[in-house]
Amino acid sequence: EEAMTEIESIVQKMESDEASLEDSLVAYKRGVELIQHCKKKLEVAQQQVKILEESNLKDFDQFDDK
Predict the structure, then answer these.
(1) Three-state DSSP class for residue 66
(2) N vs C: which end of the chain shows fewer Cβ within 10 Å?
(3) Angle at 56 between CA 52 and CA 61, to 5 degrees
(4) H or E, element range at 6
């Protein structure tokens, strides 16, 4: 959530045309780093959900056999 908030702040600053070109490039680089961080976190969360779903399906399958 903190990363997303920072990304939103960077976008607002860049859209305001108040930053110099150099500052915009630094902000862009930081934004890319934050997006990569968010993607990694999302991938981990998706994998955890997948594992939980598969585990729950196996638990339900046990009841079908009885």
Answers:
(1) coil
(2) C
(3) 150
(4) helix 2-15
Residue by residue, DSSP assigns 16-55 as: TT-S-HHHHHHHHHHHHHHHHHHHHHHHHHHHHHHHHHHH
Q: What is the pLDDT of residue 52?
A: 87
Rounded to whole angstroms, the Cα distance separating 51 from 66 reads 24
Angle formed by the axes of helices 21-64 and 2-15, nearest 10°: 150
Tens of pLDDT along the chain (66 residues)?
999 999 999 999 889 888 899 999 999 999 999 999 999 999 999 999 998 888 877 766 665 654
Please report the sign of the dihedral spanned by the C-alpha atoms of residue 60, residue 62, residue 64, residue 66.
Answer: negative
